[in-house]
Amino acid sequence: MEFTELGNSGVKVSRLCLGTWAIGGWMWGGTDEAESIRTIHGALDRGINFIDTAPIYGFGRSEEIVGKAVAERGKREQVVLATKVGLEWKKDESIFRNSSPRRIRREIDDSLKRLRTAYIDLYQVHWPDSAVPIQETARTLLDLQREGKIRAIGVSNYSPEEMDEFRKAAPITSVQPPYNLFEREAEREVLPYAKKNGLAILAYGAICRGLLSGKMRPGTKFKDDDLRAHDPKFLEPRFSRYLKAVEELSQLASKRYGKPVLALALRWAMDRGTIPIWGARNPSQLDPIEDALGWTLDSSALAEIDRIIARAVPDPIGPEFMAPPVRVGGTA
Prior knowledge:
The chain has helices spanning 33-45, 61-73, 101-115, 134-146, 160-167, 190-196, 238-257, 261-271, 299-312, and strands at residues 3-5, 12-14, 17-19, 50-52, 80-85, 87-89, 95-97, 120-125, 150-156, 174-176, 200-203, 275-279. Helices cover 34% and strands 15% of the residues. The protein has a single domain (3-211, 269-294), classed as NADP-dependent oxidoreductase domain (TIM Barrel), CATH 3.20.20.100. It is of the alpha/beta class. The chain contains nine helices and twelve strands. An eight-stranded parallel β-barrel has the order 3-4-5-8-9-10-11-12, surrounded by four helices.
């Protein structure tokens, strides 16, 4: 496994991070706890020490499974746990942003309980909440850090301007934007800002919700409770175009490096200076880990990758459909 420092925190993390949104089941067609725990243990066995989760993933279910898996394995101090804060949900499963101090205080205690831990290594604001002053949110997280409940502070889906405002009240260790071969908006402002300010970059959606796994075919269907059933990338005519790009990328990866396309996607993200967050739901999906390590993409391959995508996908679309509603007016 390759390792790096998490920003300026002094925390050593694997260059690949296990994502656990799908493990939570919500928007991914359900979950299997035993299989999920085996997957987490498998990731740890393969050298991944960095696990990313969030309360909204299964409305607490993902955190519970992660907490149980880490507790069963033991050696909590060897695992870097990252979770998030700032999304609230109702009984009807509608969600909205809420980064008020009161909400954060409630969430941290709930997360610590579900994760079966006394501290969280990286606590990230999931989405900016325009109904609460950014510095107010930042000061609350700084207080939690001083209390020893969290080790480092991060943000997710924040713009450079929002990060500047946040950093007036509290330090930021990391930023988590959507970033993969097909979704590159972060390259315009977020990645340059992070590199300039020494922030770790956690790239979520590194294999684009499975699209870059190399396993999908034109007839692939998704259940209504799977977010991909509503993702524009997985709807025609775009789906066929993206699959064409994946096919050509797969041929490039195999011919040039003897690697599968999934490994190419992960290596590309790592070579861009990010820590890819890679979701797996069963141990067999961890098999490509070794294929992604110990090599780099050369300049000619990078140029060919760009040509393939530009040719196959002339009208690329981002992950904007996943953004939760913005709150109007502040509530506790």
